[in-house]
Write a structure and sequence with these properties.
The complex is a heterodimer of chains A (192) and B (252). With 192 residues, chain A is mainly α. Helix content of chain A is 73%, strand content 0%. Classes of the chains: A mainly alpha (192), B mainly alpha (252).
Chain lengths: 192, 252
Amino acid sequence: MTRKDEKPILEGIASGDSTVLKAFYQRNLGGIQHHVLQNSGHTEDAEDVFQDALVFLYQKLQEDSFEIQCSIHTYFYAICKNIWRNRLRKKYRIVSREALLETEDVLTPTVLESLQEQERKQLFQAYFFKLTIKCREILALVFEGKSMREISKITRFSEGYARKKKFDCKKKLLEMLESSPSYQELKNASSK
Amino acid sequence: MERTEELFDRIERYLNNTLSEEERNMLELQMQTDEALAIEVAKHRELHEILGDKQTLDFRNKINKIHQEVVTTRKRTTKTTGKSATSKTRFPYKKLAIAAILVVGLGVLFWDHSTNTNTLDLYTTYYKPYPVDDTKRGEIEEELANIYTSYEQGAYVTVISALEKQLEQVEKPKLRLYLGNSYLRTDQEQKAATQFRKIDRKSVFYEDAQWYLALTYLKLQVQDSTRYFLENVIDYKGIHQKTAKKILDKLQ
């Protein structure tokens, strides 16, 4: 059962309400930073973990069957800890004692499983956001399945220019992913 | 495998189910014998599947912005409180420490202020009103000649009403540039942006329009939009390319 007083927070996150999200950030970022910094991480790692966990929570909240049995903040902290623990495992092959503290009592096996699956998505999305705004705009339309004619109409670029730009941006995205150690790791893991 | 525009188009049409049956069969047959091609198709499929989730991408975009905002605020706060803590441990130099805090405090205040005005400084440095060209006054209608004179004299309110009337009768992208600039000079940035946006990509004034859009958003301190239009200017490879790159570098 979700706590009644936290219902507006959950609804705000699910609908992407900027005010709720900002308040949630301010309330929780410090705690997550502290945990990651205490466990071999840097501020940037903590910020990445926080964002990935928030996207995960957002996606879960879109599912009708999703329920939280504890405070949203406790739950979110458990997601962050889990993401960071998985990253540490991959990075150093060993994990500190504190980071190893399991969070299974808060996260169900299904949630733990989908957190693992989420890693690939998080990586792709992170690299997508490293592209320029224009690249993101064109590629988002390509991934939506729009034709070059439609893309040209929406962006007001000529069809030739949009096609060339789409190629350059997609090639760059693929090259960035391919040169990322995390991508190689995920690839190796899935081929085992 | 060499990546080409044609290959990407073919794979995308395959993934979108817009290849003809014959083309589709041919590609599938090729994939069976060409492992590199099969791997490339799989990579594209994965990209499309993961990044086709527009809702999540929009959400991530939103939290990226909130993240920047919160992190910047936190860094500033830490900076200020961090300095105060240090002062307590240096009791023998209390006066000196207080003075240092004051200097740092003023510095932080000044820094905050200068960060906010940074984009405005850039705007002031790089903004120049769109110039009136060398067309001999006798070659253009008298009314237009008067508008140009008023524009050069900075009588923007007069120019705005005259140009709005002119543009009701006939579409001239160049006049939109003058109208947009007049709005910009009278602090009506949204109206300026509307005018610049109306200049089509096919127009010879397109680059100027994108340039002034970038400057409009620079003045409004909307960094995302400023960057977007600066990138457009850079891609256009015209007369503003170099300056656009300079501003973009300074914004990063």
